[in-house]
Amino acid sequence: MKMTLPNQLTILRIVLTPVFVGLMLLDSVNSRLIGIGVFTIASLTDLYDGYHARKYGEITRWGAFMDPLADKILITSAFLVFVAHGILELWMVLVVLARDVLVTIMRLYAELKDKPIVTSKSAKIKTLLQNVLAYLLLLLMLCSEQNLFGEAIANEAKKQLHAPAVGIAMLLLTIYTVYTGITYLVENWQTLRAVYLDARSSVNA
To answer: What percent of the chain has pLDDT over 70?
Structure first.
């Protein structure tokens, strides 16, 4: 693995994820405020590492695989934080997690067989939508801190956090996430089929 700046930022994003989770689970306004800051920094590394890799020609196979994986780890961790705070339903997050695990296993196996799979456009849109929802919920969590914004704003933010619209948004996102998984299989079917045939021939040899 070539330790380029984009790859370093990808590793940093993975390292920052448990820090973010730990801070968000602490019963402290300051810790949650710092946690949101950590999440923001981690998200910004995702924006910059892709830009830097393309601009300076530092795209590597390791980075192409690990960058979207780091995104999945960060976003799924944020959703699990929301579950812990009673904002999202666990089953929806588990469906998203199952899709990501399945796709990651397929991509990893294809990578090992020297037939890397490119992330689909629908998957990139899925990641963008997940980030938007995560930021909105984090913003509402921040506004729900009475010590920071006062009782009126805090109460309204808490109301919005548990409004039906949040559950509906997550349900639609879950459905779209499953759709991207199906699209992923369809778009890469020939590559996955070739990988499977190679694996079966190796076993029978």
So the answer is: 86
Percentages helix, strand, coil for the chain (3-state, rounded to 5) are 85, 0, 15
The one-letter amino acid at 103: V
CA end-to-end span of the chain: 31
Q: How far is CA 124 from the centre of its chain?
A: 10
- 5-204 maps to which CATH number? 1.20.120
Measured distance CA(198)–CA(119) in Å, rounded: 22
pLDDT in tens, 45-60: 877 776 666 776 667 7
Cβ pair 96, 79 in contact under 8 A: yes
Q: Is 29 helix (H, G, I), strand (E, B) or coil?
A: helix
Domain ranges of the chain: 5-204
Assign residue 37 a region: left if phi > 0, alpha if psi is -120 to 50, beta otherwise? alpha
Q: Look up the pTM and report it.
A: 0.86
